[in-house]
């Protein structure tokens, strides 16, 4: 595990976007998986401006997204589809056919999860970016998730629903479909982004503790190419390792 301590969101965004740009230069048809949330917003801004300046070409990359609320119309302004198009996809030269999403409108979410899981297996992810929930969730792998879990329909915890209600337009769904921990760990490179004191407990569990299903983020520790980019606040509990 490599830990990069950053001063603020701007530095985190520059470093994270820089890593992706370098990887795309090495492999133009890179397969990338993106997260949502506040933390990666600055990275998306950097990617948009780099693309405008022709410093990076997205025309050959393939993308996946980690998770979706279920059920939820894709057009809902709080959907992750809306978020990704709004902040990145519609602003860069990515091809629609190369964008992969879980279908939050599917009539059969279990079948949809199996479809997505096998799509990921056929298109191995080169680099996955992750945020982390205050309760240690990654994607929507909530506390109690298994290390061997695959893409599946999950119940959101009360804590996650309450936090997200503040930012959600309309009534927040009680369920989600998320890539599993095993699916995430099958990515060749994992980049975890964390900012602020809300994330201190989760990052402490990742860095200082062993595998703990109550803190799903801790399962990332075993990955052989994991980079944690976090600010001082998020790293506060892990100082003993520096
Ligand atoms: C949601 C997403 C996660 C994300 C988390 C953190 O729960 N499903 O993938 O990591 O939010 O969001 P933020 O970056 O806003 O703290």
Write up this protein:
The protein has helices at 9-26, 41-52, 80-87, 109-122, 158-165, 181-185, 200-208, 232-235, and strands spanning 2-6, 31-34, 62-65, 67-70, 99-100, 127-130, 152-155, 175-178, 189-194, 226-231. The chain is of the alpha/beta class. Helix 1 (9-26) crosses helix 2. The model has no long low-confidence stretch (mean pLDDT 96). It is built from 8 helices and 10 strands. The radius of gyration is 17 Å and the shape is globular. Helix 7 links the parallel strand 9 and strand 10 (226-231). The strands form 2 sheets. A 7-stranded parallel β-sheet has the order 1-10-9-6-2-3-5. Strands 4-8-7 form a 3-stranded antiparallel β-sheet, covered by helices on one side. It binds 2-amino-2-deoxy-6-O-phosphono-alpha-D-glucopyranose (GLP).
Residue fraction in strands: 15-25%
Number of helices: 8
Q: What share of the residues lie within helices?
A: 25-40%
Average pLDDT level: 96
Bound molecules: 2-amino-2-deoxy-6-O-phosphono-alpha-D-glucopyranose
Features:
242 residues; 3-stranded antiparallel sheet; binds 2-amino-2-deoxy-6-O-phosphono-alpha-D-glucopyranose; globular; alpha/beta
Précis, in short:
32% of the residues lie in helices and 18% in strands. With 242 residues, it is an alpha/beta fold. The strands form 2 sheets. Strands 1-10-9-6-2-3-5 form a 7-stranded parallel beta sheet. A 3-stranded antiparallel beta sheet has the order 4-8-7, with helices on one face.
């Amino acid at each position: 595990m490599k830990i990069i301590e950053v001063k603020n969101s701007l530095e985190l965004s520059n470093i994270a976007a820089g890593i992706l740009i370098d990887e795309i230069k090495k492999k133009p048809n890179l397969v990338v998986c993106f997260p949502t949330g506040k933390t990666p917003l600055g990275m998306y801004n950097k990617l948009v401006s780099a693309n405008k300046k022709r410093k990076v070409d997205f025309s050959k990359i393939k993308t996946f997204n980690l998770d979706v609320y279920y059920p939820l119309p894709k057009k809902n302004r709080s959907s992750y589809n809306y978020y990704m198009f709004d902040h990145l996809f519609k602003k860069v030269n990515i091809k629609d056919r190369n964008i992969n999403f879980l279908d939050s409108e599917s009539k059969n979410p279990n079948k949809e999860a199996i479809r997505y899981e096998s799509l990921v297996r056929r298109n191995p992810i080169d680099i996955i970016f992750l945020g982390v929930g205050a309760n240690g969730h990654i994607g929507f792998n909530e506390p109690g998730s298994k290390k061997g879990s695959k893409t599946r329909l999950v119940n959101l915890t009360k804590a996650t629903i309450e936090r997200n209600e503040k930012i959600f337009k309309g009534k927040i769904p009680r369920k989600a479909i998320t890539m599993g921990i095993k699916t995430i760990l099958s990515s060749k490179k994992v980049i975890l982004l964390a900012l602020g004191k809300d994330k201190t407990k989760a990052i402490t569990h990742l860095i200082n503790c062993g595998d703990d299903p109550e803190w799903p983020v801790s399962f990332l520790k075993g990955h052989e190419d994991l980079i944690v980019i976090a600010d001082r606040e998020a790293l506060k509990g892990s100082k003993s390792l520096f």
